[in-house]
Amino acid sequence: MEIIKSVKEMQRWSDHCRKQGQTIVLVPTMGYLHEGHLSLMREGKRLGDKVIVSIFVNPAQFGPGEDLSTYPRDLKRDFHMAESAGVDIIFTPNEWDVYPKGFDTYIDQEKLTLHLCGLSRPGHFKGVMTVVTKLFHMVAPQIAIFGEKDYQQLTIIRRMVKDLNFDIEIKSGAIVREPDGLAMSSRNVKLSSEQRKSALALYLSLQQAQKQLLDGETRSEQLIAEATSLILSYPGTVIDYIHICDPDSLEDITTVDRPALMALAVKVGTVRLIDNKILTP
Where in the chain is the domain with CATH 3.40.50.620? Predict the structure, then answer.
């Protein structure tokens, strides 16, 4: 496995691979890798000839008071894990290479960002779309893979790629969970042992909603109310949002009479966690 830090070197490497007729797969990450990331890398090995993992904690997607300064980092650990998954290149650009002095160009969207995390984290997806666009230009992949845990992000990136005519195929990887159901996240390491127990409320509320739906309860309002009650019964939980919405438009729906996305964000202590599930009536 090779480590590349320079944008120009990354572009030269990708250009050489493309001239050789090789398919490049990009897995964008912010590091502190876990099994969810590794599953995307292994899928990348199946889909292409070369797998590139970018590790960049993107300051543009963190708002004031968010956890940019305390976001977990361990590059040595990340390198070892990525190599074990068969990754060819780790790309770790410097912040000043990604956002040079005087940087003043951003990518944004008008509709999909007005839901879910976009409401409580204004500007977040503007930062996400901008850095992903830049990574696409730096790495020049034919395929990019994103996890379904960040469902809104995945939906927004797909829309951006379509709207801006990127010649890139966007693939997704299913949520990878701990044995008890907690969705794997780089932020889980910041949970205390007691908070870790409370964090399981997210998964349990999604499972409960699916069971209630199969039992005949199709009213979104009632499903959300029951999920709210369950989550708040766990100590240290503060709900940011719980929504049931159309999986494509992310607009709220009142009745679950077709597959629908249930998405939620909950703070456990100071750690903000997200999870989701497609509810199937």
Answer: 2-173
Place of tokens 């361990």: 74
Give which of 123, 151, 154 is closest to 265, Cα–Cα.
151
Q: Interhelix angle for 220-232 vs 193-214, to 10°? A: 160
168 Cβ contact list (under 8 Å, min separation 6): 136, 141, 142, 143, 144, 161
Q: Where in the chain is the domain with CATH 3.30.1300.10?
A: 186-275
26-69 pLDDT, tens per residue?
999 999 999 999 999 999 999 999 999 999 999 999 999 999 99
Fold of domain 2-173: Rossmann fold (3.40.50)
User: How many CA atoms within 13 Å lie on the side-chain side of 222?
Assistant: 11
Count of residues for the chain? Answer: 281
Spot the catalytic one: 37, 115, 124, 243.
37
Residue 37 is among the residues annotated as catalytic for this protein: yes
The tokens of 263 are what?
């998405």
Which class for 179: exposed (0-12), middle (13-18), buried (19 or more C-beta within 10 A)? exposed
